[in-house]
Amino acid sequence: MAARTTEVRYRVELWLAQIVRAFVRVLPMPVVRACGHVLGHLVYFVDGFHRRIALTNLANAFPTRSAAECRPIARAMFAHFGSLLLELIKYGTLSASQIRALCDIEGDDRVRQAFQQGRGVLFFTGHFGYWEMHAIAHGLWLPERPLAVLARPLDNPYLHEMLERIRTRTGNSVIYRQGAIRKVMRDLAANRGIALLIDQHLHADAVYVDFFDRPAATTSALAALALRTGAPVIPVFALPLPGGRYRFIYERPVPPPQEESADAVREFTQRCTDVLEMYVRRDPSLWLWMHRRWRDRDPQLAGEAAGRDDTVSAATE
Predict the structure, then answer these.
(1) Which candidate, 112, 130, 122, places its Cα nearest to that of 148?
(2) Which of 41, 53, 82, 172 has the CB geometry, 3.0–4.6 Å to 36, for a possible disulfide?
(3) Distances, alpha carbon 168 to alpha carbons 7, 33, 97, 230, 310, in Å
(4) Which residues lie below 8 Å from residue 120, measured CB to CB, with a gap of 6+?
(5) pTM for the full predicted model
């Protein structure tokens, strides 16, 4: 009975997604973004659980700001993620030329120079801005160097298939947990790009680094892969522009620590996290404050995982 109920729910969710897809297909992107803002504001008022998490996180991250100052940030964050959802669905209906017309690219010369080293390139970001759109657009302007995106499968297999079609429509691929390390190493050896997120709390294979002056369990996979392979590490960020457009930024590569560093994985992870924090501080409404990023846990436990460089499963959460 439970399995049947779940199947019905999955199909209803797919049906709703298809309705939304048909709706946004005919709308211009600025209108889609506006509709997403309305949706996000609605969720802010009805989802008390995630609203409280967001407000608590904001209060801890910005201790000098009052509750009255944090609430507008939280509302804007919900609005942003409402627009992200609808715009991603809309993105899946656009032609390659339509996607290109929506994008301003900054720092693409850094990516070309990084690939010239022949070791592949590791790209990282967080749940910030329009990261999904950035990966899709990358496959258009650099088709000879597509990305493999580390991701976790959606619980709903029908929505999972729909999302994977959107993610791979420009030549990118998606890597899931099973056999992930083998696939990542193979792609780097073939001088391809690997993209991953570094801003979710982890239960294992993590190092603790400071994020907004608080220890946060963070994937060790990015630093471990960079130190093992020598692949350049490039932070990427996707910001909204007026008119439903996007600004995609490739930052300067993060310099690795000295080889003799006793805690190289943690040091490298901190450097990458610092870049992400810099962007979040500039525009906090674009980051996922409703995620329980900081959780009570003994930081000493992370020391056991600091030297583990044989897995990237944590990065697919």
Answers:
(1) 122
(2) 82
(3) 26, 23, 16, 27, 26
(4) 187, 188, 189, 190, 191, 192, 193, 194, 229, 231
(5) 0.91
